[in-house]
Structure formats: structure tokens, C-alpha cells
């Protein structure tokens, strides 16, 4: 499997894992054409509480580990769960509590990225 297909598979699993725990406002930011970007892709979503934010991070780690045999290179933010980052190097997942996401306004920060909004399941 080539790198692009591997990354797409990783993205699909991450989005599924977020949807499994009812993560909201899921967006995929393609940063591959942005100079000096810290990753190729960001996946961003919101949760309603620190419990849900931690559950979302746990769901992502578990699904990716079980189905793709990959572990994150780095995870941070689980102590207070206002903003949890799960780093798979090419793909970085940002899971925010709503007010923290609004405060940091990541969408504006990475406005040059190609953004794909994932429609929430009804």
C-alpha cells in the first residue's frame, strides 16, 4: 500500500473513531501545501466535556491500534482534557472542548489549508 493510501486509511479510521463517540464539528485540514507545516494533515473535532474529550482520544487510539496496528508517536493534554492532541506524525488529531476550540480558533489559524468538513451522522 502506498503512503497516500495508508494515510487515507488512517484518516478514515480516525474519523470513524470520532463518530463512534459522537465527536462534533469534524474537520480535516490538508496542510501538505503549506510551507513549514508541523504535519501533513490535521483532524479537528469537539467534545462537550473533559470526559467526552478523553473518550474521543481513547476511541481514536484504540481503533487505530486494533485495526491498523499503529500507535501514536505522542499524546498530550489528557490531564485536563480541554485540548487533547494525538500525533501520528503525518496526521495529528486535535480534540477540543467546544469553548477551547472557539478560543484558539484553529480554523482561522490554518486558513490556508484545504479544509474538508465531515457531515455528522444523523
Automatic annotation (TrEMBL):
Record-stated family: Belongs to the Iojap/RsfS family.
Chain's role: Functions as a ribosomal silencing factor. Interacts with ribosomal protein uL14 (rplN), blocking formation of intersubunit bridge B8. Prevents association of the 30S and 50S ribosomal subunits and the formation of functional ribosomes, thus repressing translation.
Listed InterPro entries: Iojap/RsfS/C7orf30, NT_sf
Localization, UniProt: Cytoplasm
Subunit field text: Interacts with ribosomal protein uL14 (rplN).
Name by which UniProt lists this protein: Ribosomal silencing factor RsfS
Secretion signal span: none
Superkingdom of the source species: Bacteria
Keywords on record: Cytoplasm, Repressor, Translation regulation
Originating organism: Chryseobacterium zhengzhouense
Main location per the UniProt record: cytoplasm
